[in-house]
Amino acid sequence: MANSPELYLLISGLVFTIGLVGLIIRRNPLVMFMSIELMLNASNLAFMTFSRFSEQVPGLKGGPSDGPVFTFVVMTIAAAEAVVGLAIIITIFRTRRMVDVDALTELKG
Amino acid sequence: MSEFLLVFAALISVGAAIGVISSKEAVHSALYLTVHLLGVAALYLFLHHQFLAVAQMLVYAGAVMVVFIFAVTTLSPHEEPLKLMDQNGLPLVGVGAGLFAFVGLAWTYRNSALTNQAPVEVSGEMVPASQFAYDLFGPFLLPFEGTAFLLLTALVGAIILGGRRRIGDG
To answer: Where are the domains of chain A?
Structure first.
């Protein structure tokens, strides 16, 4: 089981779906950010899985570090996104005193 | 034993992910997300990549989650009522979109060139961190330096957003 991609891809698909559902149904921007992190993690897991098992496929070009480098870049993007996004949420909270994405309908504060 | 640990890590990842989106309090969501990230780090170990497993633990479950928990505790948002059906029916739309996405992903994964192969024994050795370092500073130097530029941009942006400005400062 550890040597076949199916279980990892199943987890990846499930976690991506959970993240998407969370992004749609939750109204708290912090939890929405966490859902985005879930989706990014699911894609990372798929990258790592395909990278690890791609040596099974004959005629497929690519080194063993292709997928991990993608994962590395996505982790960096997730960190940058979390920092900037949370700074924006805190700035909004300072002026509006509440965090609900449905109530934020105007750009001018 | 290894299979048992793999299934255990898989269940923890998926279960904690469900916990993230179903907790009423944002702090619980953040803690569930930390557990999920650690579970995924264990899966990276099963995928034989040591460096990213450790980076996932230190950078993601450590540094990024500290920022998250800091923001959650600073804002202390009120509990959010969780109902399956509110006025605009958004939760049902979410579950429908989720089902659609999962079926699409499953279909894509089933039909990829990888999963159609007969199972072949892959090498059971860990990818050494030195190998990844040679690749990162060799053929992948440009994306690596790009991440440095991205982090610098995010840092400057966070300082500009977070700095207190008086009215009239521009």
So the answer is: 6-103
A/B interface, count of CB pairs below 8 Å = 237
* Residue contact A52–B119, C-beta within 8 A: no
CA-CA distances (angstroms) from residue A7 to A89, A109, B14, B36, B43? 36, 48, 12, 16, 10
| B52-98 pLDDT, tens digit each | 999 999 999 999 999 899 888 888 766 666 655 555 667 788 888 88
B59, B114, B143 member nearest A69 (Cβ): B143
- Assigned domain for B87 exists: no
**The CATH fold of domain A6-103:** Helix Hairpins (1.10.287)
CB contact under 8 Å between B43 and A11, yes or no, is yes
Q: What is the pLDDT of residues B18-28, one digit of tens each?
A: 999 998 888 99
User: What pTM was computed for the model?
Assistant: 0.87
Q: Which residues of A touch B145 (CB under 8 A)?
A: none
In a domain? residue B104: no
Contact A7 B122 (CB under 8 A): no
Structural domain for B139, as ranges: 129-164
Distance between CA atoms of residues A47 and B109, nearest Å:
12
Whether residue B124 lies inside any domain: the answer is no
Chain CA centroid to CA B123, Å:
27
Closest by CA to B32, choosing from B70, B56, B65, is: B65
Total domains present in chain B: 2
